[in-house]
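Holo prediction. Input below; ligand is PRP.
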Amino acid sequence: MSPQNLKKTNPSLESGDNVFEVHHPLIQHHLTRLRNQSTAPIEFRNLIRRLAVLLAYEATQDLQTVSVSVETPLTTTDGHALKPSIGLVPILRAGLGMVDAVLDLIPSAEVWHLGLYRDEKTARPVEYYSKLPQSQPVDVALVLDPMLATGGSALAALNTLKEWGVPRIKLLSIIASRDGIAEVTAHDPDTQIYITAVDPELNDQKFIVPGLGDAGDRIFNTFKTHD
Ligand code: PRP
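Structure of the complex:
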């Protein structure tokens, strides 16, 4: 199913080419709690998981299935099984907060971690972990990262996955900046981007405004570790 069909079949998705902003009352409710600076880490983690499930549900609408037969206790009937191999690709650290929730939806998925952090002075991504195999790329990769700010980290991850040979990539971010979306779509128009909110600005430190602060620090309760 093409992205265009996806948009037609689901009025809750707004598409700008390959960008899908998922609107839903539950998403808006949970997102507002997520943004709140008073939300404690335990609730923040739960909210990230809930939003990851809702995003992944929308982002996987167009996955292909194959027909299978299934034996119920009463008879044999027709069913479906997912056709493509799926890889979840969390960008460390914050993407880790989304993995388990999406893995509950797709238990057969492979999980491939990519370690990237943003240099605080340049805001450019620095890779510190990548252990993809030489061959057998997954058919569809779901890149998980709650924040898409300048887009540098996402683009680095997408390049790594394309070098691995992944034919289809979907990027799932909870909050994106306008600039980040523009950057990713300019360099990688084929990647589908699923987000729950588009925020208007980046500040001088390249943080998303209004945003929610540093997702990794809020998930892992590590506000004091930056020198
Ligand atoms: C944050 C966020 C993204 C990246 C977004 O991670 O989780 O990975 O920055 O910024 P960009 O779009 O400008 O690249 P961070 O570098 O703070 O690492 P962390 O997840 O370990 O906190």
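Residues 4-9 have pLDDT under 50 and may be disordered. That is the main takeaway for now.
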